[in-house]
Amino acid sequence: MERNDSMCEFRQLKHQSFDDACCAFANRHNLQQLASQSEIRAQVLRNKLNPEQPHQLTAKELATLTHVTDDETLVSGLLFDLRMVAAKVPESDEAASLATRALQASQHAGEISAAALQHGGNHYLPRTERDRLKETAHRGIRNLVMMVSDLENRTSGMTPFLSMAVDAVGSGMPIPGLS
Q1: What would the pLDDT profile of 73-108 be if each residue is shown by its tens digit?
Q2: Domain boundary residue among 50, 81, 112?
Q3: What is the pTM assigned to this prediction?
Q4: What angle is formed at CA 134 by the lines to CA 96 and CA 46, rounded to 5 degrees?
């Protein structure tokens, strides 16, 4: 009997991130409108996003919901249960300088540090705060992925080095002999 109980407990822990992602996703979106956009009946969608119900999202439904909403919460939750982290591939029109990307990385890290100081002694973190911190961490990861992508794109020839030099000068980097 104990063996079965522990197996159920393990199963529950195994899918906790995806279950939390389903709840956060359902709270964040208008499910009635989303159901019509994704061609899923509203009640069926509500049931599939409710961890207490036996119905589960299929891979196609997961992809459809992610594309329709441009919200990768469900995919991130699923991958986190597999001990992976998702990072959205940057759009080509999302260009920013390396200095901007570095400052954004510092901003995201600072938000997480401030929350750690604020909640450091607490034994319990409210779900909304936990979801906000996870979203901040994912934004930071996406920003770093875009920074790496920019570096890869800029270092494939001579033009990228000139581009990085212009960024460095434009961001106020001191130049020997001119400063």
Answers
A1: 899 899 988 988 877 766 655 667 888 888 998 999
A2: 81
A3: 0.62
A4: 110
